[in-house]
């Protein structure tokens, strides 16, 4: 597999978001949270996965906040279809359900992030910006579940992943650890005193060296390898 770095959206425009949930009250709550940030624009809402795919095709949002259990087409299948459109929309799964199978299916389906509805509202805004910037975003609670899933399965994932991470330079490991913690390119750059262009170059090299296709897979690997402090 070869890695690619999609980069983020232009810094001079608002992040365009599509909210997808079959409960009107939940959609209203999410819209209210996002309205607190003037750099986020909600372009539309959908109550089922099929409508979400159609609206993504027509309105081209930057980020789709997607519930999992919905009529017509569930969020997991809708995520796969949206990713398959070949547009720049990135999907963040937003749900009350934290079962491991949902998390794994969402990540394997191309989701750029996973956030529980019980999370702090500020985390929702952070996730939108991180994913729009091209980063992976795993809620700390979700990251913990991912790690536990591999531990329970009895696979020697941690040792294997530590070996894979060992091929990275010290600077590349620093970049990967920050990305896995949910930092955007800009935040990584500020933390490590690098330009965003340099950060993107590091990310592209990291994906190739690790043999993963995207930042979410790299983030999961980083958590399992112990690069991110447990929460």
UniProtKB/TrEMBL annotation:
Q: Which residues carry this modification: 4-aspartylphosphate?
A: 67
Q: What is the protein's given name?
A: Transcriptional regulatory protein DegU
According to the UniProt entry, its GO molecular function terms are: DNA binding
Organism whose genome encodes this protein: Occultella aeris
One biological process term from GO is: phosphorelay signal transduction system
Q: Which residues form the Response regulatory domain?
A: 16-132
Stretches assigned to the HTH luxR-type domain: 161-226
Protein keywords: DNA-binding, Phosphoprotein, Transcription, Transcription regulation
Give yes or no: UniProt keyword Metal-binding: no
Q: Could you tell me which CDD domains the record lists for this protein?
A: LuxR_C_like, REC_NarL-like
């Amino acid at each position: 597999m070869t890695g690619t770095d999609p980069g983020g959206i232009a810094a001079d425009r608002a992040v365009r978001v599509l909210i997808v949930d079959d409960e009107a009250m939940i959609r209203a709550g999410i819209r209210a949270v996002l309205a607190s940030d003037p750099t986020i624009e909600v372009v539309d809402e959908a109550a089922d996965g099929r409508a979400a795919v159609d609206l993504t095709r027509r309105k081209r949002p930057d980020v789709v906040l997607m519930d999992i259990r919905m009529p017509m087409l569930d969020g997991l299948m809708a995520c796969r279809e949206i990713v398959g459109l070949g547009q720049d929309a990135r999907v963040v799964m937003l749900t009350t359900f934290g079962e491991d199978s949902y998390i794994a299916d969402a990540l394997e389906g191309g989701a750029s992030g996973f956030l529980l509805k019980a999370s702090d509202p500020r985390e929702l805004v952070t996730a939108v910006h991180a994913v729009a910037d091209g980063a992976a975003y795993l809620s700390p609670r979700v990251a913990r579940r991912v790690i536990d899933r591999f531990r329970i399965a009895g696979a020697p994932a941690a040792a294997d992943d530590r070996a894979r991470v060992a091929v990275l330079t010290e600077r590349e490991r620093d970049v990967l650890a920050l990305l896995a913690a949910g930092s955007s390119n800009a935040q990584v750059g500020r933390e490590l005193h690098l330009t965003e262009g340099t950060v993107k170059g590091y990310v592209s090299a990291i994906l190739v060296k690790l043999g993963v296709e995207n930042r979410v897979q790299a983030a999961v690997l980083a958590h399992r390898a112990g690069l991110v402090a447990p929460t």
